[in-house]
Amino acid sequence: MQFLVIGKDGKDEKAMERRMAVREAHLKLGDEMEASGERWYGCVMLNNDGKMIGSMAVLDFPSEKELKKYLKLEPYVVGKVWKTIEVYKCNVKRPWKFNRPQSFFKEREKLSK
């Protein structure tokens, strides 16, 4: 079962400090979940100034129960980075289309400059 998770950071003066304190743990868990197939895609959300303000992930778990287990361990939840969390069941059409070699994305990055 696929889920879209949108976590929006707090807006208080300590929000970025909390994010940076647990960011490495969040990225490590994301890499582990990607290797296991539980995380298909994720990104940081930015405001107009390029400041990190939240996160988005497409996840795949056997059930909502497994998703809830993940959320209890997610460093941005435990570290009180995400003030709000939205979860939607979703169905990604042809998810394998995201499995492209790194060179593909490097070429696209060159084109956008």
UniProtKB/TrEMBL annotation:
InterPro entries per UniProt: Dimeric_a/b-barrel, Sec-metab_biosynth-assoc, YCII
PANTHER family (UniProt xref): PROTEIN YCII
Native source organism of the sequence: Candidatus Roizmanbacteria bacterium RIFCSPLOWO2_01_FULL_37_16
Stated name of the protein: YCII-related domain-containing protein
Gene3D superfamilies: Dimeric alpha+beta barrel
Stretches assigned to the YCII-related domain: 1-88
Classification via Pfam families: YCII
Domain of life the protein comes from: Bacteria
Sequence similarity: Belongs to the YciI family.
